């Protein structure tokens, strides 16, 4: 009898251990994110995981157009954050994305070491932009140059970078004279500075969207999706220089804040 009791006791302990491990099993979310979100998103994930101990968020950073291609060709990603409305709309059209929202807005600047008063002053210098085949920032850059009637003159001096972060590094490492980058990328520059702020009317609005991939609508993914652009994540995005959009009515939170300060 004692032997049977001991065996039953061991079996019970074993099952309790297995059940305990099952309860502690963490859910993993894989997010594909535009490279320009790196600093802000890493901090947001930290905050999210502090209050969601059972969820691990892995992030794969890359150029938005490469992430779009990855999603179209089948991917392990659960959620996407892109810096191009066009790319997100294409994924929605192909029913790759089941739910999406616009959360951020950015702007373009020219980075370098010498201040300029007009865009024409970059003529004759080496200029880095993101490769438009992969990077929305490159598409915006060419749009700016064409709208300014400068593209044909500057085209021979353009240096293509894989993405906007690489274009920023080119100018920061003295490999080019100027670079067209998102304003938020200036936060991580060490040697270069903002030498010219590009008027928004010269390019399409730079809207960042996040979307859940079809078939990936788990509670964990929806929880992180909801967290983006809300609460503490909003403050982090603002700190990194983004304009935060209210997904309910597209109101720019930063503009509202500034109006409140003037009163």
Largest sheet: 6 strands, mixed
Determine the mean pLDDT: 88
The helix/strand class is alpha/beta
What topology, given as strand order, has the largest sheet? 2-1-3-10-4-11
Radius of gyration from the CA trace? 23 Å
Counted beta strands: 11
| Unreliable stretches covering 5 or more consecutive residues | 249-263
The H-and-E topology, N to C, reads as HEHEHEHEEEHHEHEEEHHEH
Into which percent range does the helicity of residues fall?
A: 40-55%
List the total number of helices: 10
What is the CATH superfamily of the largest domain?
Periplasmic binding protein-like II
Concise account of the structure shown:
The chain is an alpha/beta fold and 263 residues long. The chain folds into 2 domains: 9-106 and 207-262, Periplasmic binding protein-like II (D-Maltodextrin-Binding Protein, domain 2); 108-197, Periplasmic binding protein-like II (D-Maltodextrin-Binding Protein, domain 2).
Describe this structure in words.
- This protein is an alpha/beta fold and 263 residues long.
- It has two domains: 9-106 and 207-262, D-Maltodextrin-Binding Protein, domain 2 (3-Layer(aba) Sandwich), CATH 3.40.190; 108-197, Periplasmic binding protein-like II (D-Maltodextrin-Binding Protein, domain 2), CATH 3.40.190.10.
- The chain is 41% helix and 24% strand.
- It has a six-stranded mixed beta sheet. A five-stranded mixed beta sheet has the order 7-6-8-5-9, with helices on both faces.
- Helix 2 links the parallel strand 1 (27-34) and strand 2.
- The longest helix is centred in the first third of the chain and has 23 residues, at 2-24.
- The model is unreliable at 249-263 (pLDDT under 50).
